[in-house]
């Protein structure tokens, strides 16, 4: 089993930055892939960024060059650094871990980009 808790969301002005964190507990060593997803009202949940292992990353075209996913020191925290935020980045952000052939989700954290 894996448990995930996201934090770091909030209200930010366009052009600003936020850093989201996803803290994992349980069978952390079984996690081989972690992704950040987001879901805006009326939209489907979409993949924003993915990290496999410690260094292999992939990003949605809409966030390339603005967002960075990483695994932090201590190995139980994954972060999403978001810069140059736009109003269209407004959504609930979720982290998802793949382990034991299953998907585990956090509860989500709200990011609102507005002036």
Task: Furnish the topology, listing elements before pairings.
Elements: E1 2-7, E2 10-12, E3 18-26, E4 33-39, E5 46-52, E6 56-59, E7 67-71, E8 77-82, E9 91-99, E10 102-105, E11 109-113
Parallel strand pairs: 2-11
Antiparallel strand pairs: 1-3, 3-8, 4-5, 4-9, 5-6, 7-8, 9-10, 9-11
Task: Name some characteristics of this structure.
mainly beta; seven-stranded mixed beta sheet; four-stranded antiparallel beta sheet
Name the poorly predicted regions.
none
What gross morphology would you assign?
globular
Helical amount among residues, as a percent range?
under 10%
* Oligomeric state: single chain
> What's the total number of strands?
11
- Beginning-to-end CA distance, first to last residue: 40 Å
Structural class determined from secondary elements: mainly beta
Let me know the largest β-sheet. Answer: 7 strands, mixed
SSE arrangement, N to C: EEEEEEEEEEE
Radius of gyration: 13 Å
Count of DSSP H/I helices: 0
What's the pLDDT, averaged over the residues? Answer: 95
Share of residues in strands:
over 45%
Give an overview in words:
The chain has 115 residues and is an all-beta fold. The chain is 0% helix and 57% strand. It has strands at residues 2-7, 10-12, 18-26, 33-39, 46-52, 56-59, 67-71, 77-82, 91-99, 102-105, 109-113. It is globular, with a radius of gyration of 13 Å. The mean pLDDT is 95.
